[in-house]
Amino acid sequence: MANNLSVETAIEKNKIESGTPFLVCLEIGIWDENLAQVVETLRLVKNTEDITYQGNIFTAAEFTISSKSSAGELSTVNVSISDFKRVIQRELMQYGGGVGFNVAIIILNAGNLQQAPEHIEHFIINSTSSKDYVVTWTLGVENPLTGRCPKRIAWRDRCSWRFKSKECGYSGQKTSCDLTLQGQNGCTAHQNTKRFGGFPGIKAGAARYE
After folding, report:
1. Which carries the bigger pLDDT value, residue 16 or residue 178?
2. CA-CA distances (angstroms) from residue 145 to 31, 93, 148, 209?
């Protein structure tokens, strides 16, 4: 049954030399604050070769994942990625260091890449550092003290979800969204109108606070 492993268990079981290893994948949403959308998605797999999963190519990469949990503190996950071509470092420099990017840790069964992930967990990059050819991220859940109050502004014509987030639910091939319902690059164009995060029923020009 899918979704029955913790990240810690998957890390422990990730033996590339075994017959049917678990593959640990990273899916990183490159978030542009100016455009308020994900402009690119980086997909990496801890493996000796690239894989294709759900129509997307996950590039073979060398990285390590470790978790830390202390009494009275929120659990954190540390990811260290070997970045010899400095691809990730260029993205971090262009988009403010990467803090706030969404990162999904996805566990796949290498013996059956047609089935749903064994496990998936979503994090936010809380801090990042780079030294030589290694990029290190500290991942955690979003700090509730930094959230907007009121939590949401309900706009008539603008989606409030982050593109490709869990709430958005879009997993297709398009790499951007203009956060509209009927726009050329909005929910209708993505065939994702059921997940539109706006409120078309609100009077034009008005907003509701929740």
Report:
1. 178
2. 21, 26, 8, 18
